[in-house]
Amino acid sequence: MTPADRRQAWIFFAVAFAVLAAGFGLRDPWPADEPRFVLVAKQMVESGDFLFPHRGSELYPDKPPLYFWILSLAYAAVGSWRWSFLLPSLLAGLGTLACTYDLARRLWTPRAGLWAAIAVLASFQFVYQFKRAQIDPTLVFFTTVAFYGLCRHLLLGPAWRWFWGGCFAAGLGVISKGVGFLPLLALLPFALMLRWRWQGLAPLGPGNGWRWAGAAPAFLAAIALWLVPVLAVGLTSGNPEHQAYLQNILFKQTAQRYVDPWHHYEPAWYFLEVVAFYWLPFSLALPWLVKPWARAWRERDARTWLPLAWVLLVLAFFSASAGKRDMYILPALPALALAAAPFLDAISARAGFRRAVLGFVLVFSAVLAAAGAMALSGEPGFERKLVAERGLGPEGRWLWAMLAGVGAAGLVAALAWRVRGALKACALMFVLLWLGYGFVAHPVFDRENSARGLMADARALAGDGVTIGLVDWKEQNLLQAVGPVAEFGFRQPPERQLVAAVAWERADPERRRLLVQRSAALACLHFEPGPDAVRVGIANRREWWLVSAAAARDCPGE
């Protein structure tokens, strides 16, 4: 690498850090998934039980525990959940970009490495997901590390240690989220390419059967870090909850969830829409990549087509299941950027591509500017609706000003730099948008999204000596509770929770109150303001009340 290459790489990673870290420490976990995962990790730390995760008093068998362990380590290092819960995603994002850059640099040139990393970062879904405390960023990191290790061996090898390390990383992906094995699918197109004598494969030579066989123990060793102790305890404890946990996580949440999903139904072509729209602006380059990819196919170029073939396999794998969510396909993004890397420099110089980028910047910036300006002027549609739903106060004007400012900056840059400077205009708009999202949207929405304010208000209304019982609660209520609380199950129907809660409150009515959301499920409660019912406020688009048992006088009992 030349000094210029190093300087460009340092500049890129500084920008990437700013984009991914913007707003760090300015918010608490937000629904839907963040409060659940942080709550599980917090209860692990408080209970010392790192094998059987809990959500409240109930076991949480939906996901393997590695991500919760990582969250716990982040908390141990930082000492604050507010400052630590986004740390794993931030590090995973930077690690994913580093692996993508380094692999493309080794396969082609430092310039190609830079373009590959830019392509990943220049995808809305990547930045959005990696600014959230979800399992998927960690999964993407482990799958990228695994794919990196396999490619170091299959395309740049022999490098058996990298191969085994990649298999181990795939195992870590499995105990993060079950689909972590996906990088190993790259061995299928590799075997076909080897048989058909494609160009660009590593000269691995014959007689290495025992080395290839080492993939299995490396992969299984990572899984065993969790599976062996959890089976040892779960099968010998005699606790029926442990038995149910093992049955759920080993079967229902893996194979059954894939073959017979119970939610998130989408059509077969759903992920094509995700790639086209969620991976903007990188996806704008896809039409210009068709010809070079076709030429690479004719030339039997394995360095281009091994990553691309793996992307197609991942796409087919997730498309085959009826249950789909947009983030499922995200592990394929770094590999797609790798397949595009050697061609992006030339494509970026094409006038047609620059015009497409310019059009995107103009349209997107105009939408942002118009939305912000309309809200600032008191447009009576979406602005009032959002304020009513979210309970925003005057601080909402900061959000509208940010949107208007980012949109205006994008428009000015696009009109000033035109086709020649379209990429710079896009980069400017992109960076400003994510900085605004972190430094403005995070603090503006935090009180309503996080339930921190709601739980503080509930405690102030209830008083210090009162235990608050949570009914039809959400994970953020328990996570951000202030003072003593009780809960009556999470998976239990709200009506059953209410029956148990009323009996609990009546046992000590002076020192117990119920926090409930106003909903159809709890319509039997009397919500007339008075001594028996006090409106606390709105959080997560729900209206919350503090009630006594007397408010449930018309509710059915046991």
Task: Describe what this molecule looks like in 3D.
The chain is mostly helical. The protein has 3 domains: 31-348, no CATH class; 351-448, no CATH class; 452-552. The chain contains 24 helices and 7 strands. The strands form 2 sheets. A 5-stranded mixed beta sheet has the order 4-3-5-7-6, with helices on both faces. Strands 1-2 form a two-stranded antiparallel sheet. Helix 8 runs antiparallel to helix 9 (160-174) and helix 16 crosses helix 17 (333-348). It is globular. The protein starts with a helix and ends in an 11-residue tail after the last strand. The relative contact order is 0.09.
The geometry reads as globular
What is the total tally of β strands? Answer: 7
**Overall pLDDT score:** 92
The biggest beta sheet, please?
5 strands, mixed
Helix content: 55-70%
Low-confidence runs (pLDDT<50, min 5 residues)? Answer: none
Question: Strand pairing plus helix content: what structural class?
Answer: mainly alpha
Count of all domains: 3
Q: Terminal Cα separation, in Å?
A: 74 Å
Roughly how many Å is the radius of gyration? 26 Å
Give the strand order, joined by hyphens, for the main sheet.
4-3-5-7-6
